[in-house]
Design goal:
The complex is a heterodimer of chains A (113) and B (116). Chain A is mostly beta strands and 113 residues long. Helices cover 0% and strands 54% of the residues of chain A. Helices cover 0% and strands 53% of the residues of chain B. In chain B, 34% of the residues are buried. Classes of the chains: A mainly beta (113), B mainly beta (116). Chain A binds chain B through residues 4, 32, 34, 36, 41-46, 49, 89, 93, 95, 98-106, and chain B through 2, 4, 6, 32, 34, 41-46, 49, 57, 91, 93, 95, 97, 102-110, 112.
């Protein structure tokens, strides 16, 4: 069965630095990969979606890459701020009529002032 | 756009009672709604998928007689936890996907269920 690993359970960085989070998967590549932000006691908030034929996607200070050879996605937050502190979830989908998402456990990012 | 609400945000109940959680898409029509459960420090686990007007499809290991799902309209789905027990205590989150957002699921804020 498909496994998803977000390598770091927690990541601590200094304000202003770039945070880089990793998502690795096994088996065959998904149709698309999504990144969500989750704050404590809240539901996930959609950030970015990248398709298997896309190498990179950007949105303001966020950048996602998708390498189907390495079976890996990297999620970058540039010029990080304490308000970026949250858990970031990677989710895979194989599309189709159901398009179910398979989530990783998340990486808890802490940005120190 | 793409706002999903859940009600209640938290509920405490006695063992053996039933609890209903509502999930609404506020500004779009949700052709498909999903129900997830999340235990502390764990990933979201899909419980079931429901399409409007159809019976829900449950994931392996999820008891459909215990977790009743109704998706009566394009903006409302309900999850009823029947005869709840302490091990059902968890964070329940719904998500919705609409015709215009075919590849993205938008999540509700979640419902914290505590069964005493």
């Amino acid at each position: 069965s498909q496994k998803i690993e977000q390598n770091s359970e927690a990541l601590n960085i200094q304000e202003g630095k770039t945070a880089t989070l990793t998502c690795n998967y096994t088996n065959y590549s998904p149709a698309y990969l999504q990144w969500y932000r989750q704050d404590p006691g809240r539901g996930p908030v959609f950030l970015l979606l990248i398709r298997e034929n896309e190498k990179e996607k950007r949105k303001e200070r966020l950048k996602v890459t998708f390498d189907t050879t390495l079976k890996q996605s990297l999620f970058h937050i540039t010029a990080s701020q304490p308000a970026d502190s949250a858990t970031y979830l990677c989710a895979l989908s194989y599309g189709g009529s159901q398009g179910n998402l398979i989530f990783g456990k998340g990486t808890k990012l802490s940005v120190k002032p | 756009g793409a706002v999903v609400s859940q009600h209640p945000s938290w509920v405490i109940c006695k063992s053996g009672t039933s609890v209903k959680i509502e999930c609404r898409s506020l500004d779009f029509q949700a052709t498909t709604m999903f129900w997830y459960r999340q235990f502390p420090k764990q990933s979201l686990m899909l419980m079931a998928t429901s399409n409007e007007g159809s019976k829900a499809t449950y994931e392996q290991g999820v008891e459909k007689d215990k977790f009743l799902i109704n998706h009566a309209s394009l903006t409302l789905s309900t999850l009823t936890v029947t005869s709840a027990h302490p091990e059902d205590s968890s964070f329940y989150i719904c998500s919705a996907r609409g015709r215009d957002y075919t590849d993205t699921q938008y999540f509700g804020p979640g419902t914290r269920l505590t069964v005493l």
